[in-house]
């Protein structure tokens, strides 16, 4: 048996705070699809460096370029305003060890705050954009704004697409695969997964990858195992 979840079934769920299902679709909590977490670095209009702890994204491309596709970038945020004004940003991946530092940038994010300092992150010069990179990041994508689309047409959030102009990767992470794809690598957001038996949203959880083997290791396994 499957639970059918439509556009008009959000009354089956309970918000944890007023307006939650306006800021995020109720389907996000029903699906609870893990999303990689990272820091978006930009520069505020007063020159202060800005960091945004973000998820809700995907990455891909073809011979014409590689792209960072970031959904749910709030129109009210410094990050959105900075990207639209300056036309560039960096995507910085850090491990879950830096989660408390990332949260600190959320708590101290006023217009006059240096959010690198708030999170005890070190800025470093980028190669192709004026925006600083996060030195502690094991992988950084330097991006120029390629597209800005309000998908829901509600004036709340935009999908920001950045064309990746340059990649910086820490050598100790790109030697092999274990470090990037384990507890020291990419961290994931499991955003308040819904329990449809009760309608309650659970706490947000952090997750990391566990390598289960190569494709070749699985090709001869019987179906269902």
Q: What spatial order of strands do you see in the largest sheet?
A: 3-2-6-9-10-5-4
CATH architecture: Roll
Radius of gyration: 19 Å
- The proportion of residues forming helix, as a percent range, comes to 10-25%
Task: Give the topology string: H per helix, E per strand.
Answer: HHEEEEEHEHHEEEEHEEEEH
Strand content: 25-35%
Estimate nothing, just give the exact number of structural domains: 1
Broad structural category: alpha+beta
Q: What's the CATH class, please? A: Mainly Beta
Mean residue pLDDT: 87
CATH H level: which superfamily? Electron Transport, Fmn-binding Protein, Chain A
Could you please describe the fold and organization of this structure?
Helix content is 18%, strand content 34%. With 225 residues, it is an alpha+beta fold. It has a single domain, classed as Roll (Pnp Oxidase, Chain A). The strands form 4 sheets. The chain has a 7-stranded antiparallel β-sheet. A 3-stranded antiparallel β-sheet has the order 1-11-14, with no helix packed on it. Strands 7-8 form a two-stranded antiparallel sheet. Strand 2 and strand 3 form a beta hairpin. The mean pLDDT is 87.
Describe the secondary structure blueprint for this structure.
Blueprint: H1 20-23, H2 26-31, E1 35-36, E2 38-43, E3 49-54, E4 57-62, E5 65-74, H3 78-86, E6 88-93, H4 99-107, H5 115-118, E7 123-124, E8 133-134, E9 139-149, E10 157-169, H6 171-174, E11 187-190, E12 194-195, E13 200-201, E14 205-208, H7 215-218
Antiparallel strand pairs: 1-11, 2-3, 2-6, 4-5, 5-10, 6-9, 7-8, 9-10, 11-14, 12-13
